[in-house]
Structure formats: C-alpha cells, structure tokens
Write a structure and sequence with these properties.
By secondary structure, the protein is an alpha/beta fold. The chain is 40% helix and 15% strand.
C-alpha cells in the first residue's frame, strides 16, 4: 500500500539503550544508510536543553542536526527530531525557523497532564514552518471519551500527524483496531495516523501488519528501529517491516543498508547493553506498568520471576505509568523484610568469631581464576571461611551466608543447615534454618540494598569482627559472563542500573572500611585502596 510510510527511530528511541552515545561517525553513517534504504522518515534524535555532545543524538538546536545529514542521497526522505515534554526538553521558541534547517518536522510527545501546554507548543512549532507530529504518551491510558476529546483538539490544531502510542507495550490487535477506528472516523482526513509500539508482548510486528492492511485513504506512519533497538523490550524491527512491505505491498525499501547498521554498530552495543523481549518485561506489560520497574527489580539479581510479578502487582494504579524509584524500593524492602528474633544467633556468632580473621568468599569470577591465591591465604592466615550465596569447590567454608532467594533455589538440598545463616527475606526455609534480620542488614542506598556481600560485612561488623579478607567480590562488569564464579549465575541485566549499583556498593564498602580492616586478596572495583590511588 502506497499510503504506508516507515519512520525509523533508532537514533532517538534506540538511544535509551546506550544513553544516545552512538559516536559522531556512527550517527552520520546510520543517517546515510537509512536514507540509502529509502526510509520515508528518519528521526535523528531528541531536541533538549542539555549541552551538546557531537557523539550523542541529544541536540540543542536543529543546526546541530543539519551538519550530520548528507543530502546527496537521492530520494524524498524526511528528517525529524523529537521534543519530549518532561525530559529536559528544549523550548520550541528557541528553535530556528524551518527555512534555516534541513530538518522537516518535529515530533512532540506529552503526557495527559501536559496537554494544554503541548497544544501551545504545537502551534509554535507549526508557526515556525515544521511539520508537527503530535504524540500523546500511552494512548491506552485514555478512556474513549478522553481520546475523542483529544482528537477534537487535534482537528483544530491540524498537525501533520497524530499518533497512537503503545508506551507500555500492552496492545493486542483488538486494542489497536479500536483506537485506529476512532481516529480514522473522527480525525480530519488530511492528518496522518501514526503508530509507535513496544514489544513487551512480541506483538509489534503483527500489529504493524494489521495496521498496514487497514483500508483507509489516510496516510499511515509506522515507527520502527533497526534490530528493534529501544528501551526494555524494544521496538518493531525496521528490517522486518521493510521486508514485509516489499513482499506484501511492492514497496521499494533496500534492507541491506539497515542490516549493515545492525552488524556494524548495534550488535556491539547489544553485547553490553541488551534490549528485547524478556519475561520481566512481559510482566511489566501484563501489570500495565512502566518497564523501568521490571528493569529495576531485575537489577536486584535476588528475585524470581514470580517474586517480580508479585511486587509489580502491589504498585498503586496511579503510580504504574511513571517510574517511581523510591516507591518500588519501598515495596521491594517490604516484600523482602520478614522480621525474626535473631539475638541468640547474633550472640553465638559473636562468640564463635571473637578475635578471628574472617575470609569472605563471594561468587565473583576471580574466586575461580585466583583460587590458588585464595588457597595460599587460607594456608597462611588460617581464617574462618564464610562463602556468600554459593559453595566454592576448592575450599570448604565454615559457614555459608545466604542473602538472596534466587541463589537459595540453586543451593537447596546442598546446604548443611548447622553451617548456614539465612537472611529473613528468604521464605519457605526448613524449620531448623538459622536466620538474621534482613531489614537490619539491608543497605541505606536503594541501589545497593540487596548486596549479599555488603550485608554479610555489616553482620560481621555487628558481631565485632575486626579483620576481614575478601575474595571474589569483584563488582559488576558490562559483560555478564565475566561477573560470576559460574556462568549459570548470569541473568538479565540493565547496564546503567548495574553501574549505579557498583557505585553504591563502593560507597558502602568505603564506610565499612573505616570501622573494620578490609583486605581484598583478589582484584575488585570496590577496593578503597584502588579508589584512593586514582
């Protein structure tokens, strides 16, 4: 169908994955290849009030975009950028007129509470000569009455395009068809209908096909990105939809330049900053909540999918659409906390460890690669050995500390309960299990609250241990396979959240090192000595 256009948003929506740091050379090449592929509309990035970095697709003027576009490519490609209200957006009054730029259009995205301001800004954008795309966040959250009222205002503004936006990735075909029908029968015919999807239910491709087959004289714009690059579950894949349009509607897209983008630039990014469907992002969509909630809980590395689902169900309805970090941490802590009387346990542990050097072995990769070094220290120091969330094959621990319910599942049946201490957040334990209060050991910073290694150190401080040797407490690297003693411990991760977790754990270790002597016998990014030497 010749009334269907493809808009590629790799450099804008895909930027949530890598903080928009594609690199100047890559940005220019991606723009060039998308134009070469005959992409109808290319979204170049965000327009913000942040300082400009030529290696990022966050721009503080349209002129910065102009310098990256190679107009020598034959074709009628349209170039656009997005202003996202509430995300350090640029005031459109600061934009140059369209006549001074090769940027053709501005996409304006807004929340329901920002509608009045959005229409004021939309008029400014139109008056400056740009094609205006109006994109309400999460149209699934509008009642039919609210949606029709919005369409009436859109008709008065007469933008170039109006969008159905599936922000949370929750739309089934019937949901999309209902809103498409409302738009097509109530919106002025010369206004394009756009569709922006997310792939939490893996329905982005099938929904796009359904819209492409919808019988209308109205021009339709369907958003996608190379390799589906986008936050969380990602987006519709450009190469898939281009190929579909070529096969089913005799379109003339050249898919190979898009595949070149994927191969040369996006695959390397995916190794350290993955995106795409996962069980947790499904749970986010199933609970109709922001995907960052799932990402945050995944980064804890302490919860089963069932536990994540249970926590998401506790989110108040009014808080689901926008990520509220303090709230999800509070619910997480409440879920984890299960107070016990541990005074007797603390007393026995204090007596057992009185005057002893303790060797803490965590399940980082160095616990395996540097086992000879660890064994040497065991031979020399004769320490009391405590392993964290695992049992090393090369050394028999005197005690196993388990502070992670996910790791407990892998240890169940292998533990000597007389030589194991659990934190009270772990449920379904045998009656004879020895427990200490999770809430008293959980760390002050939400990003490090669930670190079992730090919780054990706090427990050792509580029982007056003065000297601690640390092994396998490496810190999280961008390659998950390099993080653990055993690759089977790897799980889904968010690199940005893991970096925040690293920094928070560093701070906790710094504080603890002032109260007790900590010596890292294997390399760690948390080592205070390394920090002070920089």
């Amino acid at each position: 169908m010749n009334n269907v256009k493809i808009l590629d948003c790799t450099l804008r929506d895909g930027g949530y994955v890598n903080e928009w740091k594609f690199g100047k050379k890559a940005i220019k090449h991606i723009l060039f290849n998308l134009a070469k592929s005959n992409t109808d509309i290319i979204e170049c990035g965000f327009l913000t009030n942040k300082p400009y970095d030529e290696n990022c697709t966050l721009f503080n003027s349209v002129e910065k975009i102009d310098s990256l576009i190679d107009k020598s490519v034959d074709g009628d490609t349209m170039y656009v950028a997005m202003i996202a209200m509430g995300e350090r957006e640029i005031d459109p009054r600061l934009l140059s007129d369209k006549s001074a730029s090769v940027v053709d259009g501005i996409r304006l995205t807004f929340h329901q509470k920002e509608i009045d301001k959005a229409f004021e800004w939309g008029k400014i954008i139109k008056d400056k000569g740009y094609k205006l795309f109006m994109q309400p966040v999460g149209t699934t959250n509008y009642t039919d009455k609210q949606f029709l009222e919005l369409l009436e205002r859109i008709n008065s503004l007469e933008p170039y395009a109006f969008y159905i936006v599936d922000t949370l990735g929750v739309m089934y075909q019937k949901d999309l068809t209902r809103q498409v029908y409302l738009v097509d029968n109530n919106l002025k015919k010369d206004i394009c209908l756009g569709y922006h999807s997310h792939n939490n239910f893996q329905l982005a491709f099938s929904n796009a096909q359904s819209l492409a087959e919808y019988k209308t004289d109205r021009e339709i714009i369907i958003d996608c990105s190379a390799n589906g690059m986008g936050r969380g579950a990602g987006n519709l894949c450009s190469e898939l939809f281009m190929n579909y349009m070529n096969k089913m509607h005799s379109a003339k897209y050249d898919v190979l330049p898009v595949l070149e983008i994927v191969d040369q630039y996006l695959v390397p990014i995916s190794f350290t900053s993955p995106w795409g469907y996962s069980s947790a992002y499904f749970l986010s969509a199933a609970n109709n909540c922001h995907p960052n909630y799932a990402a945050y809980l995944i980064s804890k590395h302490s919860l089963s999918m069932a536990a994540i689902g249970s926590i998401l169900q506790q989110l108040p309805k009014e808080e689901k659409r926008f990520f509220n970090k303090p709230l999800i941490e509070k619910i997480y802590q409440s879920y984890q906390s299960n107070a016990v009387d541990d005074l007797e346990t603390i007393g026995k542990l204090r007596k057992k460890l009185d005057g002893k050097t303790v060797l803490v072995i965590c399940p980082g990769a160095s616990a395996k690669s540097k086992k000879d070094k660890i064994l040497n220290q065991i031979e020399k120091k004769k320490p009391y050995i405590i392993s964290v969330n695992f049992i090393p094959e090369f050394a028999q621990p005197n005690l196993v500390f388990v502070g992670n319910s996910l790791r407990y599942k892998g240890l169940e049946g292998k533990l000597d309960l007389k030589k194991t201490i659990f934190t009270s957040n772990i449920t379904d334990l045998p009656k004879k299990a020895v427990k200490v209060n999770y809430s008293e050991l959980a760390n002050a910073t939400s990003d490090a609250s669930d670190s079992s290694g730090v919780m054990l150190l706090k427990l050792l401080k509580k029982v007056s241990v003065k000297n601690v040797l640390l092994a396998g407490f490496d810190g999280f690297s961008k390659n998950p396979l390099n993080n653990y003693y055993n690759e089977s411990y790897c799980s889904a991760f968010d690199p940005v959240l893991l970096q925040e977790k690293n920094l928070a754990i560093k701070d906790e270790i710094e504080k603890l090192s002032q109260k007790m002597k900590l010596k890292f016998i294997t390399s760690s990014i948390y080592d205070p000595k390394k920090r002070s030497s920089k």
